[in-house]
Design goal:
The protein is an alpha+beta fold. It folds into 2 domains: 1-50 and 184-375, Naphthalene 1,2-dioxygenase Alpha Subunit, Chain A, domain 1, CATH 3.90.380.10; 53-162, Rieske [2Fe-2S] iron-sulphur domain (Rieske Iron-sulfur Protein, 3-layer Sandwich). The chain has 10 helices and 17 strands. The chain has helices at residues 3-9, 16-19, 24-32, 139-142, 198-203, 210-213, 295-298, 303-324, 342-350, 367-370; strands spanning 53-59, 68-73, 76-82, 88-92, 107-109, 112-114, 121-122, 128-130, 151-154, 157-162, 188-194, 225-228, 231-242, 245-256, 260-266, 271-281, 284-293. It has a 7-stranded antiparallel β-sheet. The two termini are 35 Å apart. Bound molecules: FE2/S2 (inorganic) cluster (FES) and fe (ii) ion (FE2). The site of fe (ii) ion has 6 residues, from helix 8.
Length: 375
């Protein structure tokens, strides 16, 4: 490859042409809007199962005591509420009586949710606790719903456990200490819909070559990833030139199952990014970024740098989104030597698909083998 060809591919990167005109509200609208001419799930090979794990339903401050909200994730209508005891609970959205949606017009009664249609009340397991106009509660609905949605509140987020077979949580949501530390700022939130698959998005982290061509980084990252069960962690250390001289910088990141991840930036301005990806359907993912920064960095002479870090990380998501919104899943990709550990990533990720092989002794080697054979 000639130098001039190489140069032509270095920054400004190609996707900037799609993004540079988008500012302020137009950028925010683009982040959530459905792309025109969206292709079918099947034609993009996105008919993958949903991986199991903990996922964010909403931020803690989006659900007040006594509040009810409808949600739609995992192709399922859901209702979430916060009882008078302060605990968030979530059940299937449709009433077991005559099918009203509990999230539209329902209300909180004590710690239960009350259906707007005939006032049946449900606890957090979906069992009917009261029917105000009936002498007895039919025995079928005294039992909890078949599909349970365990909920836990941590890191100022409300998380729910998804498993296609209703299997109970297999690990815990990891706590990030900064989120409860008064020396760190409240969250700054950003959100997107990505019109693609969760797995393609997760693969991005190990896709070494794209950092240069999509994000305009000078180098390809050097990976030191460690996988242990459902967790994957990595750290990158580098010397950074700053107005305050050379600073030892570090980026530590981790994923805890498919729905929880964090990135911790140390050195120039301590920043924690809590990122959450929750599937809406097979080709739509709700992405949330929540940033917290050390107050002394955010509010001091480094305030501009602190803002710049957040802006830059959001821009990276914008850049990836240009591709993800249209990307097809390649079950058997042709990989070259500079591509990063994509095969190892797929093997790690395949453990979150319940549909195929629950027996660890026969664990599937890669998702390529577990995906429904279509053609
Ligand atoms: S439909 Fe919910 S109480 Fe009747
Ligand atoms: Fe990326």
């Amino acid at each position: 490859m000639s130098d001039s060809l190489t140069d032509a591919r270095t920054p400004p990167v190609a996707v900037w042409s799609q993004l540079q005109a988008l500012k302020g509200d137009a950028l925010k609208a683009w982040r959530m809007a459905e792309p025109e001419n969206r292709r079918s799930i099947e034609s993009r090979n996105l008919d993958l199962p949903f991986p199991f794990g903990w996922y964010v339903a909403c931020f803690s401050d989006e659900l007040a005591v006594g509040e009810v909200k409808p949600l739609y994730y995992f192709d399922t209508d859901l209702a979430i509420w916060r009882g008078e005891d302060g605990t968030a609970r979530m059940i299937d959205g449709y009433c077991r009586h005559l099918g009203a949606h509990l999230g539209y017009g329902g209300r909180v009664a004590g710690n239960d949710i009350e259906c707007p249609f005939h006032a049946w009340r449900y606890d957090g397991a979906g069992a009917v606790t009261d029917i105000p106009y009936a002498r007895t509660i039919p025995p079928q609905v005294r039992k909890p719903c078949d599909h349970q949605w365990p909920v836990i509140e941590r890191n100022k987020c409300i998380w729910f456990w998804y498993h296609p077979h209703g299997t109970a949580p297999m690990w815990d949501v990891e706590e990030q200490a900064e989120t409860a530390d008064p020396e760190w700022t409240d969250y700054e939130h950003h959100e997107w819909y990505v019109w693609g698959s969760l797995q393609n998005m997760a693969e991005n982290g190990v896709d070494a070559a794209h950092f240069r061509y999509i994000h305009g980084t000078a180098d390809f990252p050097d990976y030191a990833l460690t996988s242990e069960g459902h967790k994957r962690t990595g750290v990158v250390h580098s010397k950074m030139d700053t107005p305050w001289g050379k600073v030892d910088g570090s980026i530590a990141y981790g994923t805890i199952g498919p729905g929880q991840s964090y990135t911790r930036f140390g050195g120039i301005c301590d920043t924690l990014l809590v990122s959450a990806v929750t599937p809406v359907s097979q080709d739509k993912v709700h992405v949330r970024f929540a940033f917290t920064q050390r107050r002394s960095d955010k509010e001091g002479e480094k305030a501009g740098v602190a803002r710049g870090i957040i802006k830059n990380l959001c821009r990276q998501l914008d850049q990836d989104k240009v591709v993800w919104d249209r990307q097809r899943y390649m079950p058997q990709p042709v990989i070259c030597d500079g591509d990063g550990p994509i095969a190892a990533f797929r093997q790690y990720y395949s453990q979150f698909y319940a549909e195929y092989e629950p027996d660890p002794a026969k664990k599937i080697a890669s998702l390529n083998m577990v995906r429904k054979a279509k053609r």
